[in-house]
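PT: before anyone asks, these are the final sequences, not the draft ones from last week. 1182 residues across everything. Please model them as a single complex and drop the result in this thread when it's through.
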Amino acid sequence: MPSYTAPTKDMSFLLHEVLKVEDSGIPGYEELAPDFTGAVLEEAGKIASQVLAPLNVVGDKEGCKLENGVVRVPTGFQDAFNQVRDGGWTGIDCDPEYGGQGMPNIIGTMVGEMFSGANQSFTMYQGLTHGAQSAIHVHGTDEQKAKFLPKMITCEWTGTMNLTESHCGTDLGLMRTKAVPQDDGSYKITGEKIFISAGEHEMSDNIIHLVLAKIPGGPEGIKGVSLFIVPKFKVNDDGSVGAANGVTCGNIEEKMGIHGNSTCVMVYNEAEGYLLGEMHKGMRAMFTMMNEARLGVGMQGLAQAEVAYQNAVIYAKDRLQGRAVTGVENPDGPADPLIVHPDIRRSLLDQKSFVEGARAFLLWGAALIDQAHLNNDKDADGLVSLMTPVIKGFMTDKGYDMTVQAQQIYGGHGYIEEWGMSQFTRDARITMIYEGANGVQALDLVGRKLSSGGGKYVMAFFDLVKDFIKENKDVDGMQDFTDPLKQASKDLQAAGMFFMQNGMKNPNEALAGSYDFMHMFGHVCLGLMWGRMAKASLEALKNGAGDTAFYETKLKTGRYYMARQLPATGMHLARIQSGADVVMGLDADNF
Amino acid sequence: MPSYTAPTKDMSFLLHEVLKVEDSGIPGYEELAPDFTGAVLEEAGKIASQVLAPLNVVGDKEGCKLENGVVRVPTGFQDAFNQVRDGGWTGIDCDPEYGGQGMPNIIGTMVGEMFSGANQSFTMYQGLTHGAQSAIHVHGTDEQKAKFLPKMITCEWTGTMNLTESHCGTDLGLMRTKAVPQDDGSYKITGEKIFISAGEHEMSDNIIHLVLAKIPGGPEGIKGVSLFIVPKFKVNDDGSVGAANGVTCGNIEEKMGIHGNSTCVMVYNEAEGYLLGEMHKGMRAMFTMMNEARLGVGMQGLAQAEVAYQNAVIYAKDRLQGRAVTGVENPDGPADPLIVHPDIRRSLLDQKSFVEGARAFLLWGAALIDQAHLNNDKDADGLVSLMTPVIKGFMTDKGYDMTVQAQQIYGGHGYIEEWGMSQFTRDARITMIYEGANGVQALDLVGRKLSSGGGKYVMAFFDLVKDFIKENKDVDGMQDFTDPLKQASKDLQAAGMFFMQNGMKNPNEALAGSYDFMHMFGHVCLGLMWGRMAKASLEALKNGAGDTAFYETKLKTGRYYMARQLPATGMHLARIQSGADVVMGLDADNF
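LR: through. Structure below.
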């Protein structure tokens, strides 16, 4: 059975040596001393590896079952959920006013990565709840907040988000679910929603569904969509759980993976709901959840790649097969371990250099969110908004690829469910799809985010890269990083220029290259992250830091990324510059 | 439920307009007139789409079950197997002396693609049998051939190949299965083999296992391995099925996909076996199966990509979501079909341009095999041997990627088993692993095939490409093909040069780039194929061929491949030229 080890050392390095959180000037970050973060990470890591990881295969094998309207979660999930709840992990970065622990988002992100890496299906129950409570926290009335937040922060009540209907996913303007106003100010919600993660189960006393619906007579399409709070059980005035509401689970889906999470068809039949935020501005409120969820999904892509990589390394060191071409390395054994073979290393380094770069990227994003929220910094907000589709799209595409590569290390054993590597691939596959399929992320990036603020955020991004190169290109040892980064950034700018010059006349010129652009952007971000990590490592070595192997390995892993991953930007640029005609030229009938 | 439509038109185009089989001078090819091949393809296509495709989901859902030593195949498999058998499809390209239909390999390959595309798990039962009968045909004694071939060609008896043991896959020298010589010239085989596809089932009267084992006292390692015929039931002198042999199915594996095929642990307990080919030369005999199997697996990669693509197109035309950015295209509907969106087209064209290019590549390979065997052409044999790891490795890597892309078109529905797209991905995943994991293919290509015949085959390949470019670069309309092909071929040669210059001193310099080289090689091959297809299409249009849409679509699809796929060679070259140090520099402990 696969194992999971929390990458606490890497996280500490990122916090304290790369991001230097204590000196960042973000309110609350001054408390993030190494002793403190180390203790938090260690405790979370224990939960992840000892409580959640052993249930990952169980969840996959047993799945969730709908029996007489009741969803049974896999064996052990309830106990583990209680442990996570009792440890206060569910509200770690939530508002203390409502019972949260008030730590910054960056801490919640690291804990989320560990929990997701150990058990994605399980962690989704609390992840969805977190997103729902955020939406209520931002858009709810004081009364709504007082009523729902304390219980959701502790996961006594869990949450869901209900967007998709069978005929509409991306294009939510087509939705049919109705919300009819009642005299008491509430609404009666009627309709059917699909793909509702954690939609029904009995691990919590109540489930707070956030549901998009249309109020009859409102504007057509997406402009007539509002968001509603629809609890599974109505909540009495004293806060206790009351009568059942008109919402049932119609079915649970059989999926490729994440079997431990109940993906439900939810049927609303005149269910009592309460408007959350403004009427007809439901998408705005939902996007509070969506943006958080998108970063969370990018994190899941990384997390699955990390755990798959860890287990690939274990196997590559353990499995004896063939001899090193440069001479026997394990003379006492019948063969050498797989890890002596260059192509095995090529694959492992693809994985290692991705996960470490991606983690830096994710935590940088988390720090920007904290900076945006806690310092009310609009530029930070603009920058992280720009990068959100990249974190989601690039990190899940690559994260999935890495689970496939990790599975490949196992040869035939990777294809057998017994070894657990197939599950990482099957679970990771959903991350490319949910919370906006990756093609939609690319569209969001190129069609919306690039021009956001008149292009000022993307220009700020390029300036960041440029400044980094300028500051470091003459530092000893940094040229392995700054030279490739310069080239990759140049490619990315050339692609942006191509869009500007051609996309005005014909938007397809930009959109036909959107997916490639998202990947280029991801590579430049990871290249920048590797540059920063290299710089921190060189400084540590110069200052005589103890663990030289750690920093030297960082530098070597980073050089691998720069040498072997960044050249992808040239390919993406060539694809983009070939223009829209090759993409749009076929009649639909000729596909 | 997904559907399958046999790509007969594309196959006819390749046979008669690109490969021009009737004029090729290969014995038997003169009979491949369009009327004849059209009839064969049409009939095979009917079996594929009407008999096999409807059982694909059934096979996935039911899987194979081991009950009291008996393996139950999914509902409907036996009936379908009888139909395929009765139609003579199992021996279509087998020796008429033993009851085969004697058609060339290229016909068998096309039928194989259709059957595999419709139902990979099902088709493996006959595919493995075909490989086993080939090995007996080439290496067996007259008596063995007379005894086994007629029944195997009709699939009254099926066959298997037994290589892997739990502790050894690629490194077969480690195997422990023993073959003890008996006085009557037979051997007693004892040991346990794993991952035996079609290892046990009751669809045939007997199962002829080909088993690698070591004769005690023979040379150490791989040089002491011999190949044995071990029937499930011993065969009486009159050819009838006799007593049970000492072979049982110990277990069947739970796998990520190909659930309809029984992947067995086979336990040999003093089973009676007969040496096939020479003692201690078992690998040579097994490689007859392996080479055939590797091409067959490359074909499976293509086949899964084809069927996944077909269903992605259906969905993209049917599913209404969003509006075209350049103006509404479906004003009477609530939204436009997915296929209006540039990124959907980008994905569909990645798929379409791959499957059509890969099919041309596969059939070119099949024609080379016919040329090698039927015209005893050693150069053709050398060329197809060189390309075999590319057909296997590149076509299954890309084939798998394309199933993932096709699944992605479905959004959330792609992740739900109900829609069938997940199965294509899960089934295709094995093709990257079995018959030599793709890393082993890359090793075979760079470590063995490149230098084969003193490098004469790879030089012949480059000459082919060069000659094609020279002949066509000034032909109107061909520059979209010859220019990118020239650049890609130049990149490939530069990579080969890098290996030559650096690999002598340090073989890791070559092996650390082997995987990238395999992919570059694949792109150049598909680029050449697209060049040939473009040429045939331009000629057809010039000659006033009727179906202009077909030829124009070919040209457009080809231009897409050249513009958007061939630039990958530059990235692979950069990766290769970054050298072995970035790959080999880490101590194993630091992964």
